[in-house]
Amino acid sequence: MKKGIPVILVGLAGVVAQCIAFPHLLKIGTCASGGPYVIANPCPSGTATWILLIGGGMTVSILCIVAASFITSGGLFSGAGLVLWSAEFLGLGLALLLTAIFGHNLSGGAKSAGYSVGIIFIPMGGLPLLFGIKGWITGAENKLVTRRARTADATISRVDELRRYGTNQARVKVTYAVQPSDGASFEVSRETNAIVSHMPQFGDRAKISYDPRHPDRFEVVSAGVSASARRTSPPPATVPTMVPIPGIPGGASALPWASSLLSAQSSNGGDPVGRLKQLADLHSSGALTDAEFQLEKSKILAEP
């Protein structure tokens, strides 16, 4: 906006020139000057000056509006461009409308022209200005919120599914329990769309940015690791270790897994009687062959 101040000043000068000249031409009405014929309504002196002011002022203001749209990043309806656009149409509309209402010695056509142009131009300049002012206020509020925003850790304390879209999308309400580093904990909620297969879960961690004056105005900065992922993963299933058995061709690879399983069981208990019973059960169930059963039995009996 600061870059556009010189452009605004030059453009406003063009607008002022038009606002001064147009009412004068409205009072003059239709006229003509010069030529070999007798003119019923000759133009008064100075009419050419008013026409030059209108043409020059309009050219300057339009060029400044175009220049302002390049200077300010928001384009035509923001910043300096919006100021000049509104000044052009509001200024001319008000000048012509007030001249039509309060002007003296105006013809019926002049009054109609003043009313028509004023009624059209005022909304053309006023409505964009209203939206621009609203945008400026919102932008200023957002800057203030950004300046005083704080970041805190949060945990999802509740997830409510509001409605389902199709088979894998849903509208959910997520409630966060926020733990500020310098204040009491509080809860905030927001609605969002989520994929059912990746639904937020109770205990998921997040980091949010919030306005201390209005904690309900917040945004999720980043999502952390879920509680389920943080839990200790169960130990992988133990693959029985091959136990080589002397005297058997091919070593352990030629035998079933029962010998390895029995070895794992024998390491869990030191009672030979219990281990012999387990060995007998494995043999009777067919998990051990006769040779394996006799071999494992001799090992247990040979232990001190």
Count of domains: 3
Shape: rod-shaped
The percent range for strand residues is 15-25%
Helix content: 40-55%
What's the overall average pLDDT, rounded?
80
Task: Work out the radius of gyration.
Answer: 44 Å
Strand arrangement, major sheet: 3-2-1-4-5
Q: How many distinct helices?
A: 8
**What composes the largest sheet?**
5 strands, antiparallel
SSE pattern: HHHHEEEEEHHHH
Number of extended strands? 5
Terminus-to-terminus distance: 95 Å
List unreliable stretches of 5+ residues.
235-261, 264-268
Report on this model:
The structure is a single chain. The protein has 304 residues and is α+β, with helices and mostly antiparallel strands. It folds into three domains: 2-32 and 46-146, no CATH class; 150-230, OB fold (Dihydrolipoamide Acetyltransferase, E2P) (Beta Barrel); 251-302. The chain has helices at 5-28, 47-71, 79-102, 108-148, 227-230, 258-268, 272-284, 290-302, and strands spanning 150-165, 169-179, 186-195, 205-210, 218-223. It has a five-stranded antiparallel beta sheet, with no helix packed on it. Strand 1 (150-165) and strand 2 (169-179) form a beta hairpin. Helix 1 runs parallel beside helix 3, helix 3 (79-102) runs antiparallel to helix 4 (108-148) and helix 6 (258-268) runs antiparallel to helix 7. Mean pLDDT is 80; it is low at 235-261 and 264-268.
